[in-house]
Each structure stands twice: as C-alpha cells, then as structure tokens.
Write a structure and sequence with these properties.
- By secondary structure, the protein is an alpha+beta fold.
- The protein has one domain.
- Helices cover 19% and strands 31% of the residues.
- The chain has a five-stranded mixed beta sheet. Strands 1-9 form a two-stranded antiparallel ribbon.
C-alpha cells in the first residue's frame, strides 16, 4: 500500500460522499490467503465505490483483480489463477442485521470504521476456488495426477493391495 494512505476508513462518511478509492496490496500482507498460495509473490488491486444502501446504511461495491499463484490439488504444482471479482456489501455494527437487498452481503464494521485490506482480502477469498486445479487432468503439470486413471486399471487387471497382508494373517 502506498505510504500515507489509511487502511481504516469511516465508511459512513465515504458512503455519504459517494467516494471511490483504489488500493494495491501485496499478497504477503493478506494472512488468510497464505494457505492456498504457492508463494506470497504478487498483488491484488482493489477498488471500492462507496454509497448509501436503501436501508440508509453505508455500502460499497468492492472489486478485486489479481493473479495469485495457487497450488494445484492434483499435481501439487503452482499455477497462475486470474481473478476478477466484485460484490456489493453493506456495513453494520449489528451482528443480527440483514442486508437490505438480497445481492448484498453484510460486512461488520467497528464503530463505523472498516479495514480496506480486510475487505479486499474477503473478496479475494470468495473468488478463489475451493480446490484449485491447473488444467486438464491428463496434462496437469505434465505429470501423472492424483486420481487420474493409470496402471493396472487401464489393462483390466484387478489390483489387490492387501493380498500380502492376507497371506501373513493365514500364517499366524
């Protein structure tokens, strides 16, 4: 993030002013995404367009663009995953509140203040796949993939992985 730009902002004031902000965060600054990344390199560009929701609460359109390196769950190699995502949120201090419109999500603010970094990180997390995969299972990472058909199953021969154990049990 550029020096001097605040992370915590007053969402009510920004909503009243219909302000638009942009920030760029290093992926290494976002602790909740670290577990799915192949490495911390890269950044996420976030745009925030604040407004007022029909309920009178402050709201924002949050958009993120990034190309994080994720770990493929088939070949366990890193690959670039382009992300372009956006959603609308309403800010509230009340845990039991509901959004004024079904397409909006609620985002908890602390005394009317919200962290732009946390908002960008949340949007990025929502855009990432549950189980990342880099491509076609047959060519994934140019290596055999976990779950890809290979070996005796292709020839019609049946594998019996515990047959040696059965022989040992008979001897005892």
């Amino acid at each position: 993030m550029a020096a001097g730009l605040p992370d915590l902002v007053d969402c009510a004031r920004l909503g009243s002013d219909a302000a638009s902000l942009e920030r760029v965060y290093s992926l290494s600054e976002l602790p909740r995404v670290q577990d799915v990344l192949a490495g911390p390199q890269g950044s996420v560009k976030a745009a925030f367009a604040f407004s007022r929701a029909p309920s009178g609460r402050s709201a924002a359109r949050v958009s993120v663009r990034a190309e994080p390196q994720l770990v493929c769950q088939r070949c366990m190699k890193g690959f670039a995953f382009p992300v372009r995502s956006g959603s609308e949120v309403e800010f509230t201090n009340d845990e039991d509140a509901t959004a004024s419109e079904p397409e909006r999500e609620l985002f908890k603010s602390e005394a009317g203040m919200v962290s732009l970094r946390a908002l960008a990180e949340e949007e990025l997390l929502l855009a990432l796949p549950f189980a990342a995969a880099c491509g076609d299972p047959q060519s994934c990472g140019n290596a055999p993939c976990i779950g890809a058909a290979q070996g005796p199953e292709l020839s019609g021969e049946m594998r019996r992985p515990f047959s040696a154990l059965q022989d040992l049990l008979k001897k005892t």
